[in-house]
Design goal:
The structure is a single chain. The chain is an alpha+beta fold. About 30% of the residues lie in helices and about 25% in strands. Strand 3 and strand 4 form a beta hairpin. The longest helix has 19 residues. The protein is globular and about 75 Å long.
Length: about 425
């Protein structure tokens, strides 16, 4: 379970910002137990978090920062070796000072049936890993598995500090094999250290990203592969078929054409029969979007993993999006504790009149862009909204920020002014 994500100096996110899933006093009954305690109190975390904001305010950059962290853990040992002295990162570019500073990435997560909290993070420059750390909290007490600082001279992998007996691996051997531009976590997991493999596996297996861009065939391929999975095809076919029917798309069932091995979705006909449509050429974009989303969603629910969705509103109708939020928040539909973090412009998800507000007050975060170009991230609860408050109306009226700074009709007036000038 993800508890917290911290990010600094990545694309538009210049300052140190923290996205917290920990429930607050504004929780409306959706939070799940983490198995952790803080100062004698049980800690709960939200299964769903929505990030709202204007265009280009940095919503996607926040999810992208977590995905870049995942890629660094996955690729630094092998792929970064192909370009010694180079680290792929994207610092804030709109001031010269930030371009020379490190980029920071850190997560707090829980692992295990008897959950243990771990804090893992690192700082990157353009040339190397400047710092890296992994701390465990068995029984609520910090245990430093390792702390790393960039070494001198630069050819060395860094200076490592191992405290206590928490990390039991081949400390010195792994440290010697760690290049300046590689993560110690990646090195240890690649060499099958059992403790580091568990953390490494979380990044590889427990994070999935859904974006609105790219070709339709590529977006749908994840769901299609699950329908022919050698072990779980029946599981996924049954659930995908049921959810396609439930979405009121006119679909009666799905199958695989025995002659072509192509996916077929069958539709009701006017004479109470059914017939298939060509999946790629004849099915609607809405059907494609829902079908594409089902594979990642069902996988997250089955594995209890974390689904990152960029621009949820561009993929799903508001009514479907609201149902997705309810699925992740329902203990029966989501028994394994999967989490959903999404970005959106869709303010109707904050409303009660039509969608019965499927998201709580402390499940909403806002991004705004300052005039100097950097992103500001903060929770909706900073405005201390009342439980009965109309969040949709308050958001659209700018009470919480995160909406474009313009007046009604401003773009029309600007275009009209240019037209009049051109005709003069």
């Amino acid at each position: 379970m993800l508890v917290r994500f911290r990010l600094a100096n990545h694309r538009s996110i210049r300052d140190d910002h923290e996205l917290s899933l920990i429930a607050t006093e504004f929780d409306e009954g959706t939070a799940r137990a983490t198995g952790l305690k803080h100062r004698g109190h049980h800690v709960s975390a939200q299964p769903v978090l929505g990030i709202f904001g204007a265009n280009a305010s940095g919503k996607s950059n926040l999810l992208g920062g977590l995905w870049l962290m995942r890629d660094a853990v996955r690729n630094s040992f092998a792929d970064w070796a192909k370009a010694p002295g180079v680290v792929p990162r994207e610092p804030f570019k709109l001031d010269s000072e930030s371009r020379g500073q490190t980029s920071l990435f850190e997560v707090d997560l829980t692992l295990g049936r008897d959950p243990v909290r771990y804090t893992y993070g690192f700082e990157l420059s353009d040339e190397r890993v400047e710092a890296e750390w992994l701390h465990a909290y068995p029984h609520g007490r910090r245990n430093v598995w390792f702390d790393r600082e960039a070494g001198r001279p630069e050819s060395e992998g860094g200076e490592f500090v191992f405290r206590g007996e928490g990390f039991k691996g081949e400390r010195e051997a792994l440290a010697k094999l760690t290049r300046p531009n590689a993560l110690f976590l990646s090195v240890g997991a690649t060499l099958n250290d059992p403790q580091l493999v568990a953390i490494h596996r979380w990044f590889l297996n427990d994070l999935a990203l859904v974006t609105a861009g790219g070709k339709a065939r590529n977006r749908m391929s994840r769901t299609q592969r699950l329908l022919t999975h050698p072990d779980d095809a029946d599981f996924y076919r049954e659930r995908v078929g049921e959810l396609l029917q439930a979405a009121d798309l006119g679909i009666t069932r799905l199958d695989i054409d025995p002659e072509t091995s192509e996916l077929r979705l069958w539709h009701r006909t006017s004479d109470d029969g059914e017939m298939p449509l060509d999946f790629l050429q004849e099915e609607s974009l809405g059907t494609h979007a829902w079908f594409s989303f089902l594979g990642p969603m069902l996988t997250a629910l089955k594995q209890g993993s974390i689904l990152l969705v960029d621009e949820l509103d561009s993929s799903l109708h508001p009514a479907l999006a609201a149902e997705v939020l309810r699925v992740f928040q329902d203990p029966a539909a989501n028994p394994n504790g999967a989490q959903l973090i999404f970005t959106t412009h869709d303010a109707t998800l904050l409303g009660s009149e039509v969608l019965d507000r499927p998201i709580g007050r402390d499940q909403v975060w806002i991004t705004t862009k300052r005039r100097s170009g950097e992103t500001e991230l903060y929770p909706l609860t900073a405005a201390k909204p009342r439980k009965e408050e109309n969040l949709e109306r308050g958001y659209l009226r700018g009470r919480y920020g995160g909406v474009p700074r313009m007046t009604a009709g401003e773009i029309v007036r600007e275009l009209s002014r240019h037209e009049k000038k051109a005709r003069a």
